[in-house]
Design brief:
Layout: H1 3-13, E1 16-19, E2 22-30, H2 33-43, E3 62-69, E4 74-78, H3 80-84
Length: about 90
């Protein structure tokens, strides 16, 4: 999806979701796996917003993820498909 579509979906989902007792921040992320891995590597130690993913995407396509981190580890859940169908 485009970045604009991802922002619209994020607005529908909200800023936070609870998954398996974790409060996850909802954020727009790059769609491609390698782009997402690079994004997650940097996400651990930096402040990110929904526009941070723009510089990581090599194909200008995006998803919406729930992300939780303790500073060292990142747990993520793809929220795109389940919320597009609602």
């Amino acid at each position: 999806m485009t970045h604009k579509e991802a922002l619209k979906l994020k607005k529908k989902i909200g800023d936070v979701v609870i998954k398996k007792d974790m409060e996850m921040s909802v954020i727009v992320t790059p769609e491609l796996n390698n782009d997402f891995k690079n994004f997650i590597t940097d996400y651990r130690g930096l402040q990110f917003d929904d526009y941070s993913s723009l510089r990581y995407s090599t194909n200008s396509r995006f998803k919406v993820h729930g992300l939780w981190t303790n500073g060292a580890d990142v747990v993520y859940k793809d929220l795109t498909k389940q919320n597009l169908n609602q």
